[in-house]
Amino acid sequence: MATTAELFEEPFVADEYIERLVWRTPGGGSRGGPEAFDPKRLLEEFVNHIQELQIMDERIQRKVEKLEQQCQKEAKEFARKVQELQKSNQVAFQHFQELDEHISYVATKVCHLGDQLEGVNTPRQRAVEAQKLMKYFNEFLDGELKSDVFTNSEKIKEAADIIQKLHLIAQELPFDRFSEVKSKIASKYHDLECQLIQEFTGAQRRAEISRMREVAAVLLHFKGYSHCVDVYIKQCQEGAYLRNDIFEDAAILCQRVNKQVGDIFSNPETVLAKLIQNVFEIKLQSFVKDQLEECRKSDAEQYLKSLYDLYTRTTNLSSKLMEFNLGTDKQTFLSKLIKSIFISYLENYIEVETGYLKSRSAMILQRYYDSKNHQKRSIGTGGIQDLKERIRQRTNLPLGPSIDTHGETFLSQEVVVNLLQETKQAFERCHRLSDPSDLPRNAFRIFTILVEFLCIEHIDYALETGLAGIPSSDSRNANLYFLDVVHQANTIFHLFDKQFNDHLMPLISSSPKLSECLQKKKEIIEQMEMKLDTGIDRTLNCMIGQMKHILAAEQKKTDFKPEDENNVLIQYTNACVKVCAYVRKQVEKIKNSMDGKNVDTVLMELGVRFHRLIYEHLQQYSYSCMGGMLAICDVAEYRKCAKDFKIPLVLQLFDTLHALCNLLVVNPDNLKQVCSGEQLANLDKNILHSFVQLRADYRSARLARHFS
After folding, report:
1. Is 563 within the bounds of a domain?
2. Where do the coiled-coil regions begin and end (predicted)?
3. Number of domains observed in the structure of the chain
4. DSSP H helix total and E strand total for the chain
5. 3-state SS assignment for residue 299
6. Among 142, 164, 179, where does a domain finish?
7. Which of 129, 221, 408, 677 has its CA 20 to 30 A from that of 422?
């Protein structure tokens, strides 16, 4: 049986169990092994083993049944014990409730007894205390202080408590009967108060925080407690301002005091607030006054810079102090301190700002004009000037003599940058120094000064001077520099617009002044655009006038009607060459002077006028066959020049003109076919006829008959 048990291994696998049994049986090996395979012997072993297993199974089954019976018996016993414990627990819980009720009853009795004892003891203690005070009061009546508490300096704390109570009692006594004793008590009260303050001062110098806390707690009930706080604040500041930066020194001082004041006083937030108030009202106010008063009347620029710097540093210090516990409304407390320092300077700040900005802007402009040796002329205002302006806008005629400015635009980017920089600083100071309710109004005043000096006194003056410098359209070799004025004016106005958006808008965005500023800006833009349009229009007229002069001087009648038809060697006329060269130069100048859609608009207008000029110019001549070919070559060159405009309308006009010139050379039999072509079909018949009439052979009966 033991051998059978050995064959069982965990985990149990039936196949492996049979294998182990076979290998342990003699004759159970495979054929050819050390022992021959004996099936009978193996069968016999299997039968015996099965019997052993059956016996083992019966034995194990009996053991299992015995264990199950034992388990059921123990479970019943355990259940019985649990029931007994539950009953015991219920009994214990009842006893506990009875005990708790008894304890509560006893506690109530004890509390009642304690109240009775306290009711008896408190009057007794008060009587004892009153007896002691009467004893000490008698010593003051006798005029001799014998008690140890008054003579021993180490008992100053107890003496202070007694004298403080006697002082309160003395206040209630009639003066006529107890004047002398009241005076003695008051004198002793004052002496002890002074001793305590001296003791506090000495402890502070020795950095004895615990002693300072004890003395401060005693002085808390004395009238001189505030003097103790003053002494503490005064000594804290001794040697605190050693750097050149008083604001940094003040911040470090407050941080240091904030760490220790809670260990000394019972009301640290009040003491710290009083220290900060002392720093602001004495140290900072004195420093600010010294810095500002010396330059307030003599140097406005330095005064404004110093005011802005000092106010900024003060508000930064205030922001650092906000992290300390200063009571309930520390924001209002610190704001009032700042206001108390700067109120006299902020009341008239904007007057100083605008006055300085005006004088500074005027000086910048005058310095520029002086550098150009230019005496600024008066543009003039009023009815006559307005009438001239309206006439000039409607008729585009130059009113008054043309001014030779020698190509000077009287616009300076350096001047503009200086003006904008001054205004930017003014906006920054305005934002910092203005009351929130006055900020939009003050910012608007600064904006109007910028408009006056930058837009009117500088840009508008340059435009007026530029308009006056534009020659008449029939002038020869005119210097058309107004486009330079346009270019610089555009650049300057972009800078002006950027400052408007970056620095003015944030100050007025939520106020009614926003619409007022936008309206003023719109009026300035419209006024300048009107003058720019007028100047550009007159400049284009001058360009066309220059082309007319070139054509009149260079174009000859024999160009299109040569004497020898067979000996024409040129590809296009000299007039065409010079006009195209002039046009290309002006187109390049326009592209360099403008940006965006303005370039296309001006080039389209120039292109249309250029086309009209060439169209009218060609109508002045009579064309032979070779002359017509030369005219076609000229127009082809003009069309090539028109491509530089990159304006579809202009190129289309010259394409049509080129097609019209074909009528000058086409065979009479093909005239009707050419006129009905794609480019000429939509033109008025009179236009076509007018070009056909320019042919030298027009009067021949054959040509007239074909075109009729």
Report:
1. no
2. 50-88
3. 2
4. 29, 0
5. coil
6. 142
7. 408
